[in-house]
C-alpha cells in the first residue's frame, strides 16, 4: 500500500482547514446558546409591566420641589458644567451632579508629560 497524501495543493488544504474551523466555531456558538438557555443560575424574568393598571405611564417622575443648584466654583463656565453633566449622563450615571471643583494638576504625571513634550518641540 502506498501512503501518499491525497493532495499537496496548499489552497485545498487551507480550504479544508478553514471549513473545519468554521464548523467548530458554529458548534461552539450553538453550545453557548444552549448553555444560556438552560442556565440554572439565571434569575427568573420579571413579568412585563401591565398596561391595564390605573397608574398613567409617565416618562419621568419629578418631585414637586426643584432640584438643588450645583455648587460651582468661581471661573467655571456654565457651558462646561453642562458638558460635564452630559458626559456623565452619557456614561450611564442617572444621579444628580451636586458639585464641580477645579483640581490642581501641578503635580500629576499628565502635567509633567505635557511639560516634557513642550520642551521637546522647542
Q: What is the strand arrangement across the widest sheet?
A: 1-2
Alpha-carbon Rg, integer:
30 Å
What is the overall pLDDT average? 75
Global morphology: flat
The topology string of helices and strands comes to: HEHEH
The helix content, as a percent range, equals 40-55%
- Percent strand equals under 5%
Distance between the termini: 77 Å
Which structural category fits the helices and strands? mainly alpha
Number of helical stretches of at least 4 residues: 3
Walk me through the structure.
This protein is mostly helical and 122 residues long. It has a domain at 71-121. The protein contains 3 helices and 2 strands; from the N terminus they run H-E-H-E-H. It has helices spanning 10-37, 78-91, 109-121, and strands spanning 71-72, 99-100. Strands 1-2 form a two-stranded parallel ribbon. Helix 2 links the parallel strand 1 and strand 2 (99-100). The longest helix is centred in the N-terminal third of the chain and has 28 residues, at 10-37. The radius of gyration is 30 Å and the shape is flat. The termini are far apart. The model has no long low-confidence stretch (mean pLDDT 75).
Core attributes:
2 strands; 122 residues; mainly alpha; 3 helices; two-stranded parallel ribbon
Question: Can you describe this structure in just a few lines?
Answer:
The chain is mainly α and 122 residues long.
Amino acid at each position: 500500500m502506498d501512503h501518499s497524501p491525497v493532495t499537496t495543493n496548499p489552497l485545498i488544504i487551507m480550504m479544508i482547514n478553514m471549513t473545519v474551523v468554521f464548523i467548530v466555531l458554529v458548534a461552539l456558538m450553538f453550545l453557548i446558546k444552549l448553555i444560556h438557555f438552560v442556565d440554572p443560575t439565571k434569575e427568573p424574568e420579571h413579568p412585563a409591566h401591565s398596561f391595564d393598571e390605573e397608574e398613567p405611564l409617565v416618562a419621568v417622575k419629578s418631585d414637586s420641589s426643584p432640584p438643588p443648584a450645583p455648587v460651582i466654583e468661581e471661573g467655571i463656565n456654565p457651558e462646561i458644567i453642562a458638558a460635564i453633566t452630559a458626559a456623565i449622563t452619557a456614561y450611564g450615571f442617572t444621579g444628580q451632579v451636586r458639585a464641580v471643583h477645579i483640581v490642581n494638576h501641578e503635580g500629576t504625571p499628565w502635567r509633567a508629560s505635557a511639560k516634557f513634550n513642550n520642551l521637546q518641540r522647542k
